[in-house]
Amino acid sequence: MLEEGQKAPPFQLKTDGGGEISLASLKGNIAVVYFYPKDDTPGCTNEAIAFSGLKKQFDKYGAVLVGVSKDSVQRHNNFKKKYDLKIQLASDEEGKMVSDYGVWVKKVNYGREYMGIERSTYLIDAKGVIRKIWRKVKVKGHAEQVLEAAMEL
């Protein structure tokens, strides 16, 4: 399990719009990497819209926003277009990053057990060190909490 103060595990993922993002490419910037279960579901949509709405403020503090799920790049493209999202969405279809960051967990819903992404956010400083971790995130007010923490770096 990752902890605050540790180096963030390296990653390299494809993003919406045909791009790529890696931890190395974020060096020198604050990174807000948030993991979410699935595009175009109510909680995930509200979270993406909240982060998009604050993107200019995150930009002002040199913080790059990246949403990560196991959805395909094409699904991310559709999701981003449908809600006019301003943030970058990365695809971890193989599940390596969600595993490395400890967010691929056993979940229980109506008595049914399955593996899925635990809604979590990692605030990573310009040197690649994890400064803050939010686990089992409740969407309402979360983007604002993350912005406040980013402003302190």
What keyword list fits this structure?
single chain, 153 residues, alpha+beta, Glutaredoxin, 7-stranded mixed beta sheet, 6 helices, 31% helix, 30% strand
Task: Offer a concise description of the structure.
The chain is α+β, with helices and mostly antiparallel strands. The protein has 6 helices and 9 strands.
Describe this structure as you would to a colleague.
About 30% of the residues lie in helices and about 30% in strands. The model has no long low-confidence stretch (mean pLDDT about 95). The protein has one domain: Glutaredoxin (3-Layer(aba) Sandwich). With about 150 residues, the protein is an alpha+beta fold. Strands 2-1-5-4-3-8-9 form a seven-stranded mixed beta sheet. It starts with 11 loop residues before the first strand and ends with a helix.
Break the fold down into its secondary structure elements and pairings.
Blueprint: E1 12-15, E2 20-22, H1 23-26, E3 30-35, H2 42-53, H3 55-60, E4 63-69, H4 73-83, E5 88-91, H5 96-100, E6 104-109, E7 112-117, E8 120-124, E9 130-134, H6 142-151
Parallel strand pairs: 3-4, 4-5
Antiparallel strand pairs: 1-2, 1-5, 3-8, 6-7, 8-9
